[in-house]
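Something for you to look into today, if you have time. Just paste the record in under my message, thanks.
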Amino acid sequence: MTKNQKDFSIYTIMLLVFGLLIFIGLKSGTYLHPSNNILGPSTSPFVTFVYTIRENLGTSVMVLLIQIIIILFVCRLFSFLFNKIGQPGVIGEIVAGIILGPSFLGHFFPNTFHLIFAKDSLINIQLISQIGLILFMFVIGLEVDFRVLKNKINETLVISHAGILAPFLLGIIASLFVYKEYAYANTRFIPFALFIGISMSITAFPVLARIIQERGLTYTPLGVLTIASAANDDVTAWCLLAIVIAIAKAGTFISSLFAVACTILYILFMFFIIRPFLKKIGAYYIHKENINKNFISLTFLTLILSATFTQLIGIHALFGAFIAGVVMPSDQHFRHAMMNKIEDVTLAFFLPLFFAYTGLNTNVLLINSWHMVLTCIVFIALAVLGKFGGCAISARLVGESWHDSLTIGILMNTRGLMELVALNIGYEMGILSQSIFAILVIMALVTTFMTTPTLRLITKLFSQAKPTSHNKSEKILLCFGDPQNSLNFLSIIQFIFGKDLPKKELIASHFTHSACLNTMSSEHYFQENFNPIITESERRHIQITKYYKLTENIANEIVNTTQKENIDYLFIGATSRRNRNQKKNYIKKTSLLRSFLKNIKEKSLTLSGITITNKTQEILNRVDCMVFILMDTYKIDFILNVSIIIDRDEDIQLLMCIKNILPFVKSLRIYLSESVNNYKKDNRINQILLDNPQKVGLHQYRELIELNLGKYNKHLIIAPYVIFDTILKLQKKIQQQPTYLFVQYRKENKQAQDSDQVIQAPEREP
């Protein structure tokens, strides 16, 4: 008997013995008490089981879990749908909350609505969403970068404060006309007007930052100025909201001065006592390989204490959470780590609950008359006029162009999430009635929804007005994933274009797939991904334009970029399975099941060790520029031998790079199919052979399978993409693994107009 068999036998005997003894003990105990079946003595076990299930369904925990499941599912569904139409997912989640509320579910399915979202059960959703908001405001505070504010302090103060004062004033004026009709009988005018003013003044910093990053503006002067203005707006608006809450709770302005004085002392204490203390403590813990759990505990304790104090003095816990995030150590490693720990669970779990709770308090059906519809339209118009107009005009006054000024105004007009937070505070305090609450929620949705299409309209109008240059230089788009692999791309590009490279515009791009936006994280990833290629390009004296963007669909983003920038040459990479398999640690950590599922997900085409994923194939099918597909993950120091395969007449285009390659290689071999006839017309190949008899060799073939490419060291093979599968079948003959550069030519719609430029390269003068 083997050891495994022995262990199994012992385990089986143990289960049988102890199971029998437990059964005997339980059976004996049944005689110690009388039967008390609440369903009756004749009730079947199945009926008892069903009764137990029904009883469990009525518990508060089960009701809460069912509510959470429904909320998360509907919010993710609407977020996905709104992303598909080019809108931020947060708008979809807000709409999902309204759909689950009395506006839709409660109106068309009242029994279902009251069964799932009974009024007395909503207190649990409210409490959980409030905890989520506290964590979220802490993250928003972490995102505030005072270095950016300091560098743009003059411009941002003018833009952000103009964007607060103008809509705030218009909100106060509007309150004069709607107070008697829409305010509760016991609500005083000052808190009512202040809450309407602040709701029209707040900019949704997270939503704005996401839109900026999705449009690739994060690291442009326009993007930096807008982010800085929004951050300044955020800080000012939340301080102003704290004062408004203090006034509303105190009853009179004089009484509120005590709360305001406490708020000022609290802010000074946090900045001048707590912040230096956390900085000193963090200096020890942060720079370790992993952030110490004790410091994380201290961070959360600071957060809770700050939120508790601000709630105690009457200015809401959210303000305390925001300030706690602001005063955290400025070390980006720490902030990035904390945001990674908190943000994902907050965005994915807590905020949908908040949106649902907001939707459950929002009844758009209350806007049931033309007078109320007109009131809603007026509020939307005033909000847009105040925020958009104030920011755009102030940006123009500080020296920005009309295009940038209008763009800043549109972006700063984004409200959404942050306004909902302020509105919910006013609603819970009994200051805003259900009618005005619904009007302001719709205003927040409309102003946020209009941001993306209005930006597209502005871009289109100004692009039409911009004169086109007739001497446009050709553009090269380099798309890299692995930062180290970007160096391979740079080597290949310089190798192919040589002295002509300075005449072309080189754009290095990196796209990150992410459903959530975090400006601090984006900065971290931007530096991490671009530092290698920036350093190498400076060493090689190559000028590059950096382009970084978060996107939900990387392939689609690459295609859109080639079209938007009118790209002539696109460089992308493909996965080399043979190189990936050399990473033994990866294989050990990856289970067979995970590998199987991953292959199914990728739906990849695998040929002799090389993988072409659906993403790569989609790009090749949709772009209309020349595409170079680099298939290698080894470091490319230099190339000694080059082979160019010309299989069809169209492949004569590959000769475009020979003049740049020749001075730097030991040998160049041209493999020419016997079916190619175009070379005989321009005689370029023969001229190359005559000029470089020692380096260049011509080899004609009938079938590709005849070729022997495996005897060369540091070898680059350039071939048309249409023979991809055939070439890679030759891998069995290859001992010295080469670097592959497959080329896909322009689509037919552009190939005709560019053929003279690409194919008919200037011949050497006799």
In short: The domain at 475-574+613-631 is CATH 3.40.50.620 (Rossmann fold). The CA atoms of residues 91 and 760 lie 52 Å apart.
